[in-house]
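User: structure tokens for this one?
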Amino acid sequence: MRTELTNCRVFDGISAQISAPQRVVVESNKIVSIGAAQTQTPVDQSIDLSSMTLMPGLIDAHFHCNSPSFDIPGLDRFTPSHLAQFARKHLEDMLQLGFTSVRDAGGADVGLVRAVEEGLIDGPRLLIAGKAISQTGGHGDFRVPGQEDYCGCAYKGALSVVVDGVDEMRRQVRDAFHHGAHHIKLFVSGGVLSPSDPIWMDQFHESEIAAAVEEAKTRGSYVMAHAHTANAAVRCVKNGVRSIEHGTMIDQQTADYVADHQAFVVPTLSVIAALKSEVSGLPEESRQKLEVVADKAFKAIEHCHNAGVQLGFGTDYFGHLHGQELMELTERAKAQSNLEVLKSATSVNAALIQKENALGVVQTGALADLIVIDGNPLDDISAMSDAKNIKLVMKDGRIVRNEIGRN
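Assistant:
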């Protein structure tokens, strides 16, 4: 199949300006030419985009497939087949919103990856961590304090698993890759929704973090780490972690350290705003922790921007928030320029997930993951907050949504 997209103004995922009208040709699953001139090369289909904006498909670098509810301990009572049906819906909705790739941050397994690859789920390209890894009593240990251990065994829930010690860490990381993981997820600070760990709590010994990083490197991969505090971010980066998730309490000194080590930070702002609007539904300890991170999150992005940190893009949505992931774009635009936000969700995230020049860009030779926006998101990023303005979605050269010419 050879497809031409004509009269489109291109945001290539990198440049500060949108181009004059272009002709972009896709053959099979790749972009084969970009230019202003029309040629006589035959095509199978031609779509006139009438000066709408063509840009790379969006990448969500902090997504949760198995996430029908913010009641994380409650997810442990779901059967895997039931959770998989929620995952299917969440993935298919994400593709319709223009997210052509997502990086799962804990819970998704290789069965979902294969279902997407085989077309059983019409969703974005899916990269998984398997179950996120927590220490006993850490952010991923969702046993209620005082609750008896399950058969005296370490906790293993829907989203996460508990390990303690370097040897257990090595075994778990090796097992995750054996079962199809693309990367590894650790919890290295406290979190908002977990029942027993304060936000400021350091989690995992540095030797355990380093062991996970070392094992991931043997697979040509990397570690992403949940880390709210500045100290947690430093401990992660010091030991080779590639991707700091949330980073809500990073200060300027820490941002400088992260930048010097060329690590990434993936903020998740809109989920904080959403939880604050519904704070009455949270346990008291979670409300208090939410206030701590909400108070500092925007300032942390400013520190990272000043230091030149590579800022990725993630949503971290659960439950009823799914389907609203585009709101992260406008929330982030309160802290960064439209260009910086769009690059975070395209070319920066592509580099983060080790797909630089293949995803997140509109350039010859890149994979044909493309979306068309009715409007100019560089001038007005709110054009992307309404899914109705997403007129076309192409993943891997296949058109999966086409609203061109429809009101």
